[in-house]
Specification:
By secondary structure, this protein is mainly beta. Helices cover 10% and strands 42% of the residues. The protein is built from two helices and 24 strands.
């Protein structure tokens, strides 16, 4: 923690003469020693301190102290780091005026020290109306902005378009047979020769697990990307099962698999993909 450059000058800020209005602090409901001042560049702040106790002044994030000028550099100790200032009086029952200048704002202070048992502020923070107004304006602008202008939405839509892009609509294969009546039964299943797309109801909340059927008998859990309830698998599935709890839906690619005439199950047509 570096020592502040405390200018040893008597400031003629007329707190006592009433040249500036004094802002009243808002105490924390849980601890009255923690207070918040509404920031006003044209007002002053009375900060209660006491010997043997440190008062912590916390400024806004990104704010850095340039100088703290006090009217008495002997009876008051001060230090700072980043956006934090620490003040402690050496003696009781004294007061001093001061100006705190940062890279963003200027604060007019009136430091008052009581006895070691008097009321004091352990932490002082500030509420900045300009920041609040800016945040509200940005929130309102975001509501009015097109969805594509909202961070993340444009990228998600582009990713979805890229995932669905094919060189020719004729490359899409919709020859999938679906069996089952569960709520998550796909509305559509198709592939483009590289990936499989399973479209579910957009109102569906609970997503099922997806299993790939290998060689017509072995189930293998498959990962998928979910784009607004369009499940995208980075390979062509010859057959599979969607499961959620005890419910399940089965499907198979009729170009690659066919039902056996005798017995249950499926059998490959030619060489299915690995």
């Amino acid at each position: 923690m570096r020592k502040l450059c405390i200018a040893g000058i008597i400031l003629t800020l007329s707190f006592m003469a009433g040249a500036q209005a004094e802002v009243r602090p808002i105490p924390s409901p849980g601890d009255p020693r923690l207070v918040v001042f509404p920031f006003d560049a044209n007002s002053s702040y009375r900060i209660l301190t006491r010997p043997r106790s440190v008062t912590h002044i916390e400024l806004s994030p990104g704010e850095r102290v340039r100088i703290l000028a006090l009217g008495d550099t002997v009876s008051w100790q001060a230090a700072d780091r980043d956006n934090h200032v620490f003040i402690k009086p050496t003696y009781p029952n004294q007061s001093v005026s001061g100006t705190l200048v940062t890279n963003l704002r200027t604060y007019q202070l009136f430091l008052q020290a009581g006895s070691e048992t008097d009321k004091w502020y352990q932490r002082v923070t500030f509420q900045y109306p300009d920041l609040i107004a800016r945040e509200r304006m940005e929130a309102d602008r975001a509501k009015l902005a097109p969805e594509d202008a909202i961070p993340g939405v444009r990228e998600e839509r582009a990713e979805r378009r890229n995932a669905l892009a094919v060189s020719d609509p004729a490359d899409l294969n919709f020859t999938y047979e679906i069996t089952g009546t569960a709520a998550f039964r796909p509305l559509q299943i198709y592939d483009d020769g590289k990936s499989t797309y399973i479209r579910l109801d957009t109102n569906l909340v609970d997503m099922p697990a997806l299993f790939r059927l290998r060689d017509g008998k072995d189930l293998e859990l498959v990962d998928y990307a979910n784009r607004n309830n369009l499940l995208i698998v980075g390979r062509v599935l010859e057959a599979g099962t969607l499961k959620l709890g005890d419910a399940e839906v089965r499907f198979h690619n009729t170009r690659l698999m066919r039902k056996r005439w005798f017995g249950s199950g499926l059998e490959s047509i030619g060489n299915p993909p690995n």
